[in-house]
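This section describes the prediction task in plain terms. A model, or a person checking by hand, is given the sequence of a single protein chain and must write out its three-dimensional structure as a string of tokens. No templates, partner chains or ligands are provided. The sample shown here is typical of the held-out split.
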Amino acid sequence: MKAKFSPLQLLDFKLLESHYEFIVPEEEGFNVKDLFQSYSVDIDFGMGKTDGEGEIQLFTKIEVNFGKKKSLPGYKLMVEGGGTFRIQDPENVDEGLRNNLSQFSTLNMMINNLRNIMYQITNLGPMGGYLLPPIDISQLLRDKAGELEKES
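The expected answer:
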């Protein structure tokens, strides 16, 4: 089947910061998959200013087992990246689709790029690769909107 390309283009992606730490488990005989599922995951994101006309810049940070409280054994991860996007021919794209592409799709693409980086960082680690579970992007966007509303 021939693929139809999206009007959303990822122009650039950069890894801005990363942190990897392995915390040696004190106990033996635990299930690695269950441990990975118990990790806390925190995602933050924000739009940046761009020089190019019609460009969207998005910065995204993912922290896994990285909170201020005592971390669980295994991996402690933080990755932050920035991406620049553009919607081709935006005046010919329906407003609803344009909003979906500029918010939902850009964030989804950033999380997927960072997910791959986390997997690559951990793949040679003692517990094998950590694969970030699927994320509810709609809920993230609602939470961010609520956070911005509280700030203003």
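For orientation: Residues 95-122 form the longest helix (28 residues).
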